Amino acid sequence: MVKSLVFGQIREDNIEENTLGVLNKLTEISEISEIVVALLGHEIKDEWIEKLGKHGASKVITVKAPELEVYLSRPYVKAVLEIIKITEPKLVIAAGTVYGEDLIPRLAVHHGVSCAQRINDISSVGVELHFHTPVRDDQAMKVTKIEGTIKFATSRAGAFFVNENPTGGSPNVESLDVTFSEDDFLVKHIEIKKAERTVNLKDAKVIVAGGRGVGGKEQFQIIRELAEILGGEIGATRACTDVHWIEETYEIGQTGQSVSPDLYIAAGISGAPQHVSGIKAKTLIAINTDEGAAIFNFADYGIVGDLHVILPILKQKLQG
Amino acid sequence: MKIIVFIEQIVSTQVKLQGVDYFDPSRVSEDDLIINPSSKNALEGALKLKDQLGAEVTVVCVRGLKPNKALREAIAMGCTDAIEIADETIYTDDPLLLAKVYVETLEKIGEFDLVFLEAEEQATGSYAIGAMLSEKLGLPSVLYAEELEVIDSGYKVGHVLEGGRKIVAMPSKGIISCSDSQYFTPRYTSMRGILTAKRAVIPTWTAADLGLSSSVVGKEATSLIEVSLSNIVLEKESYIIKEGEPEEKVENLLAKLKEDEVKLGA
User: Fold this and answer.
1) Would you tell me which residues 48-107 of chain A have a C-beta closer than 8 angstroms to some C-beta of chain B?
2) Count of other CB atoms within 10 angstroms of residue A45
3) Which of A65, B55, B68, B228 has its CA 20 to 30 A from that of B48?
């Protein structure tokens, strides 16, 4: 049987959604005997612990310290290594957020093993755990296992279903003290610049989104025009918001907003996992010049072609 | 100031290969190979510092069927020199083994200040290399960087974060992995750079030159065992229109949407 340790992550004053997905996934695996969550921070709320318990955690180990208010690699690695030492898990797993992807490989190095990343499934074959990772623009599936007494993995964002009505109980809680030194803070936190979210895309029924293929700020006009005709909203990848072709509020994906429209038109979007993990559309239409673009793997309909040629024609046909 | 950039050479997505064929070297020609776009972001980060602070930038490529192509392009972009690590015994599908090769490469190079590398190893889909290298060297690191500014104590770095961007300060010696961002948008090669690249003598190091054996960095040493690699069979059938004039394609799409009773519009 496998005892597991989950890295508990907080986002916007709540348990990060993908962390709950990881918990739910572990509860489905019969070989997992116990689910322990490592929860680190300056302040840790009782409601977070309760939520972790409801989603399957049988135990939560907390480390409270002002130094842990914001994630920084060294202090977090130090604290989680202490938790691993006392819990002796066979599997250590985190949701594949920026912090989760940073932490897990570091922990693995300290145990002399590698790690499986951005998995979208775990299967058990006898006593072995197999990790499933989509590779090469989601065209192929690589299944790996990790040799060693302890296995490390991260999940892909959105890979695991979050149970809306979890039925778990209250977990046992244990607190741990960890001492930090100046050397743990060679990288210093300055600030977090939160992206402005003035437009809520969560409830949008139709979204027309553009990616790097749009090519510039002015060229986004056709995306706006088509969205207006369809009575929908506009969206974009992080690449577009970073270069200020469009306001950051419109960013969709792992680091932006998650959306679930009836119709999603993806124009000039390659289909990187970080973007598509934020989309749960009933119908997805992709337009891209690259026939091999990953977005076509997720599309219900698609046109291989230049969005700057295709969208004006589509707009004209819809108006006519 | 000395900067080392580790880059990855990958098979272009423009190549008409599907799924597992990408991993079959016999299906890939030299023309199909490009520098991982994320590696180009890393090169840009190093070259910006070269412009600003007069750094010496050495580019290293371990992976790849024919790494020289990528290395010469990196020199043409502005790197000072290049080192090729070519040894079939190195198992590059395991980021931990790759990190061991990087550590020994840095040891052989000698003094350095900064290491730049890609955020994502595309061939393996791994995001681990920066974090693993940082732990193995015991050096501070900032991963998924999107912007960088030189400050008195080192660097102020902004990196990707869910819901925004985090700004941190790091010392002058460390590791930075770079994301696709405005700041790290790669420059083009220059005519002068292309001529320099053509003339460049690129040394080739093997695992043995780094004091490594296959029992340390070969497939036999990996803890990440590949159980299977297979094509993903899509559960849903996609209707992708590839042929025809643009107007025909749009008409084809609208007709199909109508037939399938897909509502266009809110």
Assistant:
1) 70, 72-74, 77, 96-98, 101-106
2) 14
3) B68
**Domain count across chain A:** 2
Which of B132, B143, B163, B173 is CA-nearest to residue B49? B173
Is residue A144 one of the residues assigned to a domain?
Answer: yes
- Binary contact (B96, A114; C-beta < 8 A): yes
What residue has token string 């409601």?
A47
Burial class (CB in 10 A: 0-12, 13-18, 19+), A204: buried
Overall size of chain B counted in residues = 266
CA nearest B143 in A: which residue? A102
Range of the domain at B40: 2-221
Query: Cβ A299–B240 below 8 Å, yes or no?
Result: yes
The answer to whether the Cβ–Cβ distance between A108 and B158 falls below 8 Å is no
Q: Which residues 160-189 on chain B approach chain A with CB closer than 8 angstroms? A: 160-171, 174, 180-182, 185
Tallying the residues shown for chain A, one arrives at 320
Residue A199 lies in a domain: no
> For chain B, what is the domain count?
1
Distance (Å, whole) CA A221 – CA A238: 18
How does pLDDT run across A77-120, given as a tens digit for each residue?
Answer: 999 999 999 999 999 999 999 999 999 999 999 999 999 999 99
Structure tokens that stand for A271 in this block: 């289909």
Are A97 and A179 in the same domain? yes
Q: What pTM value is reported for the model?
A: 0.91
Per the CB < 8 Å rule, is A301 touching B142?
no
Cα separation, A318 vs A304, whole angstroms? 19
Whether the CB of B40 is below 8 Å from some CB of chain A: the reply is no
Comparing B101 with B63, which gets the higher pLDDT?
Answer: B101
**Would you state the pLDDT for residue B65?**
64
Question: Residue B189 is encoded by which pair of tokens?
Answer: 């090669």
Question: What is the CATH number for A223?
Answer: 3.40.50.1220
Residue A12 domain-assigned (yes or no): yes
Q: Is residue A190 part of a domain?
A: no
CB contact (8 A) between residue B161 and residue A101: no
* Tens-place pLDDT, residues B204-249: 999 999 999 999 999 999 999 999 999 887 766 899 999 999 999 9
**Domain enclosing residue A165, as ranges:** 2-185
In a domain, B263, yes or no: no
Residue in chain B closest to A78 (alpha carbons) equals: B135
Q: A88 and A34 in one domain?
A: yes
Q: Which two tokens stand for residue A124?
A: 């058990």
